[in-house]
User: Which sequence fits this backbone?
């Protein structure tokens, strides 16, 4: 089955710097890749997603890139702010497994003012 | 628009006791998911419902866990009897349908501690 690896597990940046989180997946049939942000004591919240027919997607300070050949995708956050501090999860879904999301292990991002 | 509602938010029980969690999905969402999230890990799917039907329960430990979604809206997840290793966050999510590219919206979760 699908396996998603996420790196790094922790990331500390200064306010205003960029942050990059990388994920790799194993199942070449995966075609949907969402990113979730989870704050302490809350459920995961979708921040951006990308589908396999697109190589890059941007939403204000957040962007995601997808390389299907290499089977990896990345989250880029520019001009980080203290409120970006949270745990970020990548996930992958495969068409033949319906809506089953396989999550990475998470990255704890800390943005220092 | 109201999000996914879960209750209780926190639950502390002694091992071997039963416990139940309740989820109300976003209105109009036909697909409902229960996920287990251990500390420091990503969520793992336990069961997925399409309306009233459980279409994927392969990861549900059926010896002690059960779930139902009788009218295709609310759902309950039950553990009986609870074990120490069941301490985790139980997340409910919903989506309009169960397609592989459907956005899943998560509730706040129920934090279970088994003593």
Assistant:
């Amino acid at each position: 089955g699908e396996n998603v690896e996420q790196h790094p597990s922790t990331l500390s940046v200064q306010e205003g710097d960029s942050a990059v989180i990388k994920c790799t997946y194993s199942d070449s049939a995966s075609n949907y890749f969402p990113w979730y942000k989870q704050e302490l004591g809350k459920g995961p919240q979708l921040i951006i997603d990308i589908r396999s027919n697109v190589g890059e997607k941007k939403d204000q300070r957040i962007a995601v890139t997808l390389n299907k050949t290499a089977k990896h995708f990345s989250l880029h956050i520019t001009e980080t702010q203290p409120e970006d501090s949270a745990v970020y999860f990548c996930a992958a879904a495969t068409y033949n497994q319906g809506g089953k999301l396989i999550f990475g292990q998470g990255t704890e991002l800390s943005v220092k003012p | 628009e109201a999000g996914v509602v879960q209750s209780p938010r926190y639950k502390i029980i002694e091992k071997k006791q039963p416990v139940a969690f309740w989820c109300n999905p976003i209105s109009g969402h036909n697909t409902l998911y229960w996920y287990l999230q251990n500390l420091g890990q990503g969520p793992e799917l336990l069961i997925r419902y399409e309306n009233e039907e459980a279409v994927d329960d392969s990861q549900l430990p059926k010896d002690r866990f059960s779930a139902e979604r009788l009218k295709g809206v609310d759902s309950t997840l039950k553990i009986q009897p609870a074990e120490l290793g069941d301490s985790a966050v139980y997340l409910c999510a919903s989506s309009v349908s169960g397609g592989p590219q459907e956005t899943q919206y998560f509730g706040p979760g129920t934090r279970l501690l088994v003593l």
Notes: Chain B touches chain A at residues 4, 31, 33, 40-45, 48, 55-56, 91, 93, 95, 98-109 (CB under 8 Å). Chain B has a mean pLDDT of 94. Residues 44 and 75 of chain B are 18 Å apart (CA to CA). The longest strand of chain B covers residues 88-95.
